[in-house]
Amino acid sequence: MQAKEITNGAEWDALIAGHPAAHPLQTWGWGEVKRATGWGAWRVAVQDGTEVRAAAQILTRRVPRLPFAMIYAPRGPIVAPDDAEALAALLAAVNDYGKSVGAIFLKVDPAWPVGTPTDALTHAGFAPSDETVQVTETYTIDLTKSADAIMAAMRSKTRQYIRKAEREETKILRDTSGEWLDACYQIYMETARRAHFGLHPRSYYDAIFKLYDPQKQYLYVALRENVPLSFLWLACFGQHAVELYGGVSDAGQEWKSNFLLKWHAIQEMQTAGYALYDLNGRVNEGISQFKEGFGPDHTTWIGPYDLVYKPLLHQGWTRALPLAKKLLAREE
Hints:
The protein is of the alpha+beta class.
């Protein structure tokens, strides 16, 4: 097996596309989105002949004013949980890269359900971390089931509201030009105020639209009489269709547009051939109740693991450097 740095976007996505563990956050486009917001992105793949046994897109964030960095494989590494040999070959390359950038630690958080064996990770030196980046508790829908079976698993109220939105002639379109981004951001701000969560700067969402593969992102907008009522934005790759963001206006809540919108997205992702629809988080009571109405499975990922290179600095990162972490968050 041989580890190789990959510097071409089309080559990277083609290499990882067939691996069952490939995830939207490990695609080239996602790395470019993060690069536009202050991170570095480095990619490495381990091949056994023509087979990709392991791969990782490593995001790098420098500690302000210090010669150190944190490195992170979002929803990675791309490797079978029990393939310790391939993981070891991958880590040999990643550790060399980490040394070159002064990494304090490497964080990983693969989309492996709780119960997945993690022996390969722990034997490689990883330990569970309390510092999460991606959500660990989510809802998922098995898209290999029939549409009728998915609909049957929904709450009766959810089916009722889907039909209501259909009767009200709610129109759903996919925005491929960005003409609805302003309207979606306004709806998202309204939703954030109502549900009490924070947003990235507007430029962050513009970067996603511009830099993530246009064939693999789906920005859906629900309208009534040409007035946008709700939106849903997904990033997809491999077997995964993942909701990134979504929101609904007050008027959209009244007309139940978000119910029809989500059902439309689920059907579209099934038609596109994805196997798992990830609703990306059990957030707060109101949003969770809405998501639960679609009859999803309660899925919990194994959570983050850290491989520590500099123990004293890692302790400082997790315990005594809240200001540095605030600075990093402010720069995202």
